[in-house]
Design goal:
38% of the residues lie in helices and 12% in strands. The protein is an alpha/beta fold. It starts with a strand and ends in a 6-residue tail after the last helix. The structure holds zinc ion (ZN).
Length: 226
């Protein structure tokens, strides 16, 4: 029986991944990171969602990290603007965030004797983050396994899905309702309910999610979520 760790933020993508993992594996631990993000609403929602799916959740405090990096998610700044240091990337980019999350989850996997990490990174409708691409995941998997003489796999069920297809997958895995009612992805920490879920509707994450949901509804004919 495989032991699995799901990197879990409480957002749409990782909630879908948690549902996906629940339907495939019996022994799952979800892990969330507090990295100094401006809005702790996502961690509150992460606790609710993990509780609803009856998955144990470990929240790991790495709040020192937020003071080391520039990002609109951990400080002041316009989430709709380019990044302070990297004008080719969005302001919400957090340098090496995914590398750090995967590194720590890989350490925990060795402690818990887990064979699989699951992360909701996606290179299709992605938000312009280079650490969400398949080649990055392949490289860090190889580096961490080499550096620890281990053989832990990293599964990325959303890697090549559009946002609309991620809604479809959430439906298939039985977690669409949780995604729409509880998951939180908004860069502004806004908790307003919309037909596509919680959020301000203005930030890039909300716009991507709202557009994906509209496409999902038109493609699937799913009229159950109004
Ligand atoms: Zn928003």
């Amino acid at each position: 029986m495989s032991k699995v760790i799901v990197i879990f933020s409480g957002g749409q993508d990782s909630t879908t991944c948690l549902g996906w993992a629940k339907n495939r594996y019996n022994d799952i631990t979800a892990v969330s990171f507090f990295y100094g993000q401006n809005h702790d609403v996502e961690l509150q929602q992460a606790r609710k969602i993990a509780g609803a799916l009856e998955v144990p959740l470990r929240v790991i405090d790495i709040s020192f990290f937020g003071s080391m990096v520039h990002s609109a998610l951990v400080g002041e700044g316009d989430v709709n603007a380019p990044h302070d240091d990297r004008p080719d990337l969005p302001a919400s980019f957090v340098p090496n965030r995914n590398a750090l999350f995967i590194l720590l989850a890989h350490s925990l996997a060795q402690t818990l004797k887990a064979e699989i990490l699951v992360t909701g990174v996606c290179q299709t409708d992605y938000s312009g983050y280079p650490d969400c691409r398949q080649d990055f995941i392949d490289a860090i998997r190889r580096a961490l396994n080499l550096g620890s003489a281990s053989n832990i796999n990293i599964e990325t069920p959303l890697m090549n899905l559009t946002k609309a297809q991620t809604f479809q997958l959430a439906k298939e895995e039985g977690v669409l309702d949780l995604v729409l009612k509880e998951s939180h992805t908004c860069y502004s920490g806004n908790d307003k309910m919309n037909n596509w879920g919680r959020g301000c509707g203005e930030c890039p994450a909300c716009r991507l999610r709202a557009k994906g949901f509209a496409e999902y509804k038109s493609q699937s004919g799913d009229l159950s979520c109004q």
